[in-house]
Amino acid sequence: MATDSLRKTKTLSDIDAKSPGIAPVVGEGNISGPIKASPTREYVAAIGALWYGPYVRTLPQYIDDLSDEFGGDTYERMMYDPTVSKCINDLRVGILENSYEVLPVEKRDSEQVQSRFGKAPKNIDPKSQEISNFCESVLDNLDRPFDDYLFEMLLALAYGNKISELIYHIQKGGVNDGKLVLRDIRTKARENTAFVVDNFNNVLGIMGFVPGVAWPVMPLSVLADPSKMPNILPRDKFAILSHRPINGDPRGTSLLRPAYNGWWLKQQTWGEYLKWLVQSAGSAIYGTTAEGAQPVPVVNVDGTVDTVAQTPEEVMVTQLAALQNGSVAAFPFGATANALPVNHESGKAFAEAISVFDRQIVNAILGQTLATEEGQGAGIGSGTGAQTHADILSQIKLYERNMLCRMVRREILRPLVRYNFGDEAVELTPSLSMGATDAGDFAADASAAASIGYKLDQSQFADMDSILGVPARSPNWQAEAAQRQSEATKKNTNDSTKSIKFDESRRSFWDFWKLERK
């Protein structure tokens, strides 16, 4: 196939040549020539593209129908809900529970050994190891701890995306003296940025709010000449985490979108629940007027009597309202005031409804409930069902963990390698690993391995130290262990000899004492 022809449709003459006398199928139409497309070019535009030309535009700051209709801060307001916040934060902590490890690129023919931290490299090129050590030292010496940065970037789970700016400086002194290293990575607010894209949603840069530059952030704008706008910054100045983008949209999608209905119904229920609590605590009061009660004249502030008198019922309502608000009231002879009975069981409906909404929120965000919410109850969440839910949660965390690791390699480490080692070294950019399983799974994995007779070899002890989080062993730990064992054996032998001599001396002394008595 020619490089400039992705697909060629048969013409009418081709069909007739193979099947003479057979008319073409109705609806095919007459094709006068081949249909061609270049495999190196993108043709179909993204949603919102401009049909009249290849102009650059800025995307709106909202990410979906909810944030468009109810405001860009919709998901930020949802994060104030305890259940929503707990689910997102549990997921963020779970993703980062193993910390991170920088892994150098292996040679193609190197042995692949799977471990909890991914593939343990066994055959490393010296240049790859040098680049890996450099990247690791840069991440370990940022102004802000890299773990804290990753934790904040994972807000993209709720907000769809998160943008951060890469801030470099020339290192003076130390192992990276004279190199361009990262000083800090600063996350930016949604309101102060906008994606600058072409008609295919390729991100060309970021429009930002720059102090001292009299250009605002203008979402949903068409830019005739972006080079003349001083607040448009190049793409490689930023690290962008887009969460599960659809149709190439860099704004991503939010985990909170399916949870919105449960959250909204929960917010409406709280108000009604509060009304019931107030009514149940104070009890509603009703009254009856005395038989033959007469209207009461109304005295104005100036002491004059109003021409319209209050009916006995109006007077009682005023007095009952004062009594309900904690004041006092006096009623004429024959009038009654009574409290309505309260059905305290009716309040369970509100509590149960809120519980249902919470479970819907948890299901929408984490895909299960037994491993997080209900699994904390006594006797609930145990057994096969809870384990299945825990496996679902582990799969979600693994996917999000891999997404974060790919972002770090692509957005942070790759530019760092290019600036300091050149374009030819980009393919040696190390990867970031945060483990293939959860930290809590180690005990189960170890028990399963032991049950089939698996035993660790001494060559595997170094990896086990890393998994267990204990300090690394000495390079000569085997010789040192043998020496300690030898010294312990020698000491035990000496102690045994001393004990025997002591017993012999005691026996000799006893024999001598008996001889003296005779």
Mean pLDDT: 81
Number of strands: 14
Describe the largest sheet. 5 strands, antiparallel
Compressed to H and E, one letter per element, the order equals HEHHHEEEHHHEEEEEEEHEHEHHEHHH
Structural class, from helix and strand content?
alpha+beta
What is the terminal separation in angstroms?
121 Å
> What spatial order of strands do you see in the largest sheet?
9-1-7-8-10
Radius of gyration: 38 Å
- Low-confidence runs (pLDDT<50, min 5 residues)? 1-13, 113-117, 375-381
Give the % helix: 40-55%
Subunit organisation of the chains: single chain
Shape: extended
| Amount of beta strand | 5-15%
Number of helices: 14
Nutshell version of this structure?
The protein has 518 residues and is an alpha+beta fold.
Can you describe what's shown?
It is a single chain. The protein is α+β, with helices and mostly antiparallel strands. It has helices spanning 12-18, 65-70, 74-78, 82-95, 126-140, 146-153, 156-159, 260-282, 312-324, 348-366, 384-421, 442-451, 461-468, 477-517; strands at 56-58, 101-103, 113-115, 118-120, 161-170, 180-188, 193-197, 203-208, 222-223, 232-234, 238-242, 285-288, 336-339, 431-433. It contains 14 helices and 14 strands. The strands form 5 sheets. The protein has a 5-stranded antiparallel beta sheet, with no helix packed on it. Strands 6-5-11 form a 3-stranded antiparallel beta sheet. Strands 2-14 form a two-stranded antiparallel sheet.
